[in-house]
Each structure stands twice: as structure tokens, then as C-alpha cells.
Amino acid sequence: MGTTRETGTTGKRTVRGTHRTRPLALGLAAVLGAGLLSGCADDGGSSAGADGKTTLSVGVFGVFGYKQAGLYDEYEKLHPGIRIQENSTERNEDYYPALLNHLSANSGLSDIQAVEVDNIAEVSRLHADKFVDMAKAGGVDKSDWLTWKWDQAKAPGGQVVGLGTDIGPMGVCYRKDLFEKAGLPTDREEVGMLWRGDWSKYVETGEKYMKKAPKGTAFMDGAAGLYNGAVASYPVKYYSADGKLVYKKSKAVRESWDLAMRAVDSKMTGRLKQFDKEWDQAYANGTFATVVCPPWMLGYIKEKAGDKGAGKWDVAAAPKPANWGGSFLTVPKGGKHEKEALKLATWLTAPEQQAKLFQKQASFPSAQTAYKLPEVKDAEHAYFDKAPIGKIFSQAAEGIPTTPLGPKDQIIKTTISDIGILQVEQQGKSPEEGWNAAVKKIDDVVED
Fold first, then answer.
1. pTM, whole model, 2 decimals?
2. Which of 188, 254, 386, 398 has a CA 20 to 30 Å removed from the CA of 343?
């Protein structure tokens, strides 16, 4: 679902960035192309070869980084009888419908299947009987994972359909040079205190910035980034704990929407849509001062801002702990090599491997035990003025609320951002018009 982004040396520890594109298309693919999850168990992709080795297939979307970080090679050396074959579909909006199709047909599944966080609720509620209970797998210790991450993959019957891989605890990346010119502090601790505890303080800081803003710059990239950061910090967003759709009356949605509209009204946004070419170019030109950023975005910023931005960017704590992104590894039942697949899945998601993946690919661990390991604990990022990213994002991760997830979280979030907010921000529609347009689109595709 994305491409590898290299972040380079991070000071005490080297961290290389992986970016699995987070925004997803609103519609699902109408036709599920053959071979999206190729090399699967029922198709002969998991079998003993002529050399006697057992091939285990791993279905992922985008770049999970296991291959790039050398973890597959390491596992194969530890288990000479195993060969690992990764089947990667570029984008999750193609991968996930194909996964559902294979589940329905009960064929074509890889030995291990990745599931994105915004899809895990649908998988755990509707398809839990088709997956191995990972909580019962050998060597799995629930206490290794953050509680909220573990609970995200728990089915109504109590089984755990997947083990958490990475997460996206949020910080705020900011341009020190622009802050200084606007009369704001530049030290990351002082900057974090400007908005600590309340996303509205982040907007207030933006209002102060705009009074002395360097010519041609905005405080933040776009209102959608603010909205997504704020809404993710609440314990209830789009669905209630009992699975009811509540976004229209949700305090999280209402207050986060109002903050986004306040930012637009104050003309403090660059009116940019994230991951568009204009957004990339704005990094290169230095035309906005802040962006809400999970760890996986740091490599993206470095790539787009380039050498001109080196030493100018830094990272501060977000107003409140929140999460953007993350995935799970699952093992479908009935595969030809279910036991071997379980061993591989638990090894790949173990704290030690998660720490290695963070060091080499910037995928932040969901295993809290990994935060004590030097690869995470001592991590710094040279491009961001040696920011102690291990410390910053570990603290954020531990405070993220356990939030009920629903089957259509991704569609709701993307529609509010890409239709509702952008109509106000880029087309000049009123907040009421933008909200109504988003609700109409959501009602067309999501059952209440």
C-alpha cells in the first residue's frame, strides 16, 4: 500500500523509514482481480519443495518491512527447513476486498494474512471463526502488547484473531526556523507545553503564529490533519462500545470538526490534502510550520523536505495521545502449514523483532516490552535535530485510549476529511454544507 522511505541515521540508533500509505479510497474494488493474494495455501503456494523445504506464504499490503529489515532471512537461518514467500499488494483497498473474497470462498488464503487496523473490527466480528486464536499460540504473552492494541483484535467470543505489528502514536512535527520568526519557542519541550493537554491549544498556537507568520507560510498543512489527530484522542469516535454507529452525535467528531473549521476560518491552514503532489511540494518549499505526525511519517517528511529542511524540523509531543495506523498478523484456519505459520507469525511480532523493525524501518512497536530495548529506548532522529523519537513516541503510545472500532471506520474518517473538510477548506463551502455532504456520502455506503 505504499513505498519504502529511508530516514537515515538517527543518532544513537539507526532508523530507516517505511511508509504504508494510510489514506484509502472510499469505494471497494468492484471486481476482485485474480492473483491479488497469489501463492496461497490452497493454490500450492505453501508446500514442500523438491529440496524438502516448506514454503510459508505471507500476504501483506504495501511495505511491512520484514523483507527489507532482513527478518525473513534471519528466520530462515534459524529454521533451515522453512522458506518464506511474501505476496504484497500495493494498496490496502485492493488487498482487503480480495482477502474478504478468499475468506468467503475458503480458498486462496496465504498462511499468514496481514490486516489493517481499520479493518480488524470487521474481521474479528464477522470472520473470527476462520482464524486461529492467537492468544493461545505458543510463546504469546498478552502483557507484551499495549492493552488497547491487544483488545482491537479481540472477537466478541473472546478469541484474538491477530497479533499487533506496528502502531502510529502521534506527535507534532514543526519547523523551528518558522517558529522562531513567528516569535514562538523552538525547544521541543517548550513547544509541547504550548498545547499540552488540549487540541484547542494547538489551534490557539496557530492563531499566535499567524499574527507574525513568515510571508507565504501557514501554521499547519491542512485542517484534515488536525481533525484526524484530535478525533483519535477520544475514547469513542464513530462506533459505541456495543457496536452502534454514533458518529453523528459523537463528542469526538463534533469537537474535532469544530476545531478543524476554526482553523479554516482563521486561515491558518495551507489548504492541502495529505499525500497529494501539492502537499509534497509544500514540504520542499517550507510553506507550513506544523504537521501532525506518527513515527512512520518522519521518513516521508525527510524525503519531501530534502536537504534544505535538515536541522529545521523537530518533533514535539502531541496535545493528547492518539494513534494513526497500524496492522495485525493473522493465521487463517485450515492451512497446510498452520503450526509452522503460527510460529512464524509469533516470531515476527515478538518484541525483539518489533524493535529491530523500528530500528531499520521506523515501524513503531505495538509490543510495549520493546520500549525497554535499546533499539527503541535510545532511538534519536538526526534529521529532526536528534529528537529522542523512541522516548517521545513510547510515552504517546502508552497513553492512547482504547477506542471501539467499527467495520466502516476508515470510510467514515476518510469521507469526513476528503469530502466534508476539503469542501470547506478548498471550495469555500460553509461548515454546514461540508458536513451535510460528508453525511450524505457516508449514509450512501454505511448502514446505520
1. 0.85
2. 398
